[in-house]
Give the backbone structure.
Amino acid sequence: MDTISPVYARLVLRELERREIDPAPLFAGISTSRQELLLGGDISIQDFLHILRTGDRLLGDEQLGFMLGRSMQVFAMGPVGAGIASAPNLRGGLQVLESFTRLHATYIDISARSTLQGLTVTILYQHDTGYVERFHTETAMMLLQQYMETLIGAPVEDAHYRLAIPQPANREDYRNALHGRISFDADVNEVDIPQHWLDLPSPYFHSEMWRQARLTLSQNLKEQSESEGTPYTQHIAGLLRTSEPPLPDLGEVASDLNVSARTLNRRLQAENTSFRELKSSALASWAKQYLRQTNYSVDAIAEELGYRDTANFRRAFRKSEGRSPIEYRQSVSP
């Protein structure tokens, strides 16, 4: 059974009780009681969605997603939140969010990718959450904004929020809540974060907490790999996708996961892939960005990507894409 942290649901309960609204309907027809919500662990997705829908009805015109988002902090995400909060910079925190969110909530998938302009975070849902999906998106965007602005110490007014909802009548509520540019009717829920914010040193970085958080998450990843899915593949693909060239090598990634390079490759082989394949895919993606969006020569791109020899880059690109870098550039040129 898919489960989720009870934090959002507890916040809904707290808000109702603060306003002296009877919260009994929150628990009508579900297996979770008020006592279990307050003192227990994760709750089922079905109970969680019922509490959100009912809370929205009881709170009336209140913008539930923004209300929850203003109350949320990353520490509510358990070990994942500890890693995010203690990261050395925004990029490091978002890499933890991308790689380990599945350990925190099975119904949501947060992916991120680096671009020549910065980093894009995408929010996808693994369950049909109905109209309360809007609440999740509002809350997630607010949480991201609070995290960014806490680290940076200033409003991030040049972020771009793209929301997969029709333009609402209360669009000014969105513009008041989110400080950057907002677009509605998007294909997916995404936020673009400009490059110049990503690698600023975080004043909250704590080396020992950062080390301990990654150890805990690495152990959780190992436990998940023993029971389901391809967590190591997802983790490393996400890490490479959110890193800037030159991309980390096998030893660096293995060290971060507190395993040997041999052990990491063995676990990837059990998931029918290898570090070499994942890195080659990430390098090909970066190469295509450079070829599409810049006038860099093939030699310059090879150097940016960390290749010692342009010939090696040409061979790797042709193997990945079935054509040379020049042929690819010509095919995408306007």
Summary: The mean pLDDT is 90. The two ends are 49 Å apart (CA to CA).
